[in-house]
Specification:
This protein is α+β, with helices and mostly antiparallel strands. The chain is about 35% helix and about 25% strand. It has 3 domains: about 5-150, Gcn5-related N-acetyltransferase (GNAT) (Aminopeptidase); about 175-340, Aminopeptidase (3-Layer(aba) Sandwich), CATH 3.40.630; about 355-455, Nonspecific Lipid-transfer Protein, Chain A (2-Layer Sandwich), CATH 3.30.1050.10. The chain contains 16 helices and 21 strands. Strands 1, 2, 3, 4, 5, 6, 7, 10 and 16 form a 9-stranded mixed beta sheet that branches. Strand 5, helix 5 (about 130-145) and strand 6 form a beta-alpha-beta unit. Helix 7 (about 180-190) packs antiparallel against helix 11 (about 300-310) and helix 13 (about 355-375) packs across helix 14 (about 415-425). The chain starts with a strand and ends in a 16-residue tail after the last helix.
Amino acid sequence: MSSTLPSKKTTHKAKSNRARAVANRVASGTIQKSQQPRHDWPTIECGAAGDHPSVQAFLTSLFHRPSSAEFQAQVDEPQYEPSDRLLLKRGSRLVAHLRISKREMRFGDLVLPTAEIRDVATLPEFRRQGCASALLQAADQQMCDDGAVLGVLNTSEPHFYAKRGWVVFGNQSYSEAGARDVLSQLSALRESRPTTFFTKVSQQPDTQLNIRLWRHVEEAALIRLYAENTGHLFGPLERSPAYWRWLISRRGYDRIYVAIKGPDKLPLDDKLTAIVGYAATKGGRIAELVTTPDYPEAAEHLLARACSEAIELDEHPVRFDAPPNHPLHQVFVDAGGQHHTGLIDQGEVQMAKLFDPMSFLNHLCPQIHARAKASSLDLPTELGIQVDDQRYRIVFNQRRITVVPGRLGRSYLTCGNGPFAQLLLGHLNVEEAIKAGKLEASTRIAVETANSLFPKLEHWFPSLDNFTA
């Protein structure tokens, strides 16, 4: 059963006063002068509905995006408010912009209130004057005020954000191969398994899988399948029914295919259980492919349909985005392709910022305790952590876990704030981090304990959420 970290609700009155609060923080020095533009003109404001035309024109002039359809989709997003845009102005002229998107991220059995930084932009003549730094610091405060425990962003300039407390978070996971090569490999797999599902469905037409385009009345099936497949993962967004409706209406995809167990015509029930999988595609890219655990073979049928579509549209090679352990990655590798699991995707890395790491550690305690009990550790035990000049001791027994400030004990880790955040988020392999100098361990017992309590996690960030109209 999942739990949601507590989120502070911002009142309507507080939201209406955000611009004034941001301006006061600049004037009072809460936003440090070294991070402010070096002119006497800048003012930071929270956006209003009346700013939308100038914001779209500003972003389009710099990035040649978003399109009118995408900008309208941003405005229509369920949790969007005009004040989620921070604007830096010289008089009435917009010179820098930053947008915050409110999200909820799955983190095992936790749901993390999350905020995503997007569309950080500054006019060329005002760059290297602290504009982006001032907006980013104001955004940190606003994200915290809205109750976010985690900030995320994608960037091609990680060094800029690393200086401001952000850390690299999570590897990419996708495979690429020629569409015809993948189809050949799928055909070879079917021939090598004569008694598997593929033979059975040919002998039992009533259980045969049908692959066709998705229909809007089948939205409940997508919601169900996504929830079934992401409830235990680290990284996917929590998608409410309202968010799903927005995501579908945004049309960031080209097509959605569904796999149906049995006849094509479906009874319209609440969950549409005859639909056992779906795949969303765009431009030769399979952005999201999800199947029910009872019919994993549906993934191969959906992949074959997507590859056939790519061949027809002359879209080569085919890219498949999925969690690192998805079995279809091996199909791409066997077809002569490659499975990519590096930090960089299309020149960008994903970064994160924990606004209160120790509070996050306390919320992780049930997960950490479960790892301790499932490992070979002899309980009771303890592990100290020194983060810069702060000391903590994590004490375990069979029944509970306790974080005690001010003491370390004999076995402990030493690290800075950045590696500590990466450790909590499951980005680090403990022994590799020690070799790289990111962590120091006082004893071998500290290394073994940390390996069990803070393993490197397999993150997955579905790309469909980021596809634009």
